[in-house]
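Incident review: delayed structure delivery

Summary: a single-chain prediction request sat in the queue longer than the usual turnaround. Root cause was a stuck worker, restarted by the on-call engineer. No data loss occurred. The affected request and its eventual output are reproduced below so the record is complete for anyone auditing the incident later.

Affected input:
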Amino acid sequence: MLRTQLKDSLKEAMKSKDKRKLSTLRLISATLHDRDIAAREGGSDEGISDTEILQMLTTMVRQRRDSIVAYKEGGRDDLAQAEQDEIEIISDFLPKQFDEAEMKEAIQNTIGEIGAEGLKDMGKTMGALKDKYTGRMDFAKASGLVKAALSA
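Output delivered after worker restart:
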């Protein structure tokens, strides 16, 4: 389904001649193609799953956020703005991000579901969160919240 959305958006960007959107969508398609090839070489008949596509898109957003910081430090606001534009295009394919309250609730629910009882269950909890909430949760922030919840 996500693949279809990406292809349709790519066709739409070609028709509208939106250069920024077109180049970003081509970059996404190329990255997806590379991941599909790697998955097939690993023994998968199909390419990567929608969950893995969401992880890929989340990674692309995080990379661009890191680039924005570097560009702003270097005084290159034009390049920082280009990265921000790409984030907005990529984010169109991601589900709504959890705010902190929703994140805390999801963490508490997951801890209860898997029976996590302390910091020794941190990895197990993070794995369950990633399986359930990929693309909707910032796992860097979630890690700190999970640690706090398991320490209490």
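Verification: The CA atoms of residues 112 and 146 lie 12 Å apart.
Action items: add queue-age alerting; document worker restart procedure.
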